[in-house]
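Pilot study result, target chain (268 residues):
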Amino acid sequence: MSDTDKTSRKYLIPGLERGLLILMVLSRHHREMGFAEILKLVDIPKATAYRALQTLEHMGFVRRHPTSGLYSLGVSVLRLGFEYVTSLDVVQVGQPVIEALRDTTGCSSHIAIRDERDVIYVARVSATNAQNRQVNVGTRLPVHRTSLGRMLLTGVDRQDFEALYPEQQLPDSDPGSPIYRDALWEMVQEDRTRGYVIGESFFQFGISSIVYPLFNHDGEVQGVVSIMVPMHEIPESDREPLRLEVARAASSISSLLGYQATQKDETG
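Predicted structure:
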């Protein structure tokens, strides 16, 4: 450990650190977990882990099932998450826009941001007869396997892209998504030039999407707006009208974020 690391660790609060480790484990595994399994994953003393869990349960950050005794994330974690989401400017200004986009297109509409190699849905409105309800606010999906992720990567330069994906082979690739880093980079460059992505059954068969970037006042990609079209391939007669509606929504949100839009931005 370097002198810098030693100095920074000197000011850490061990109890807080261990409690956060437990929350991260429960969050990562998306299911109820027993004490023994948690203890194995956090690698901290048994008594310390027990006290941390008791504290977290008392504060509502962890819930213990009354019958099984298994632990899961509590409502206080969800409250913190939603308060963070609603504090984002892109959500505050974008929510009424995607509601209007849903009403105009009849399609579920979303806003998403990037957190390292994950796409995070931060706002969503469902179509009346939406078939796919698996995506909610807070849902995370792999950036490299989604149309939204590809559009988010258009704001990343090559150096940061390679730092994000240091290996040549991408993790957990499946049929339809790129296997290698360079192939993904080429797709992202094409997406950047085009200015939008139409992903037909790219991540989930039978579900297509139209995705546009959202720019902040510095011209940086702050997020994406998309609609989810419940069909394997969007008919040519619907493709252009739907694309233009998403383009207008993206332009409206970007403008509210302080971005100076051009005619090309508005029409693609």
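One observation from the pilot: Strands lie at 62-64, 71-73, 108-115, 118-125, 140-142, 197-200, 208-215, 221-229. A full batch analysis is planned for the follow-on phase.
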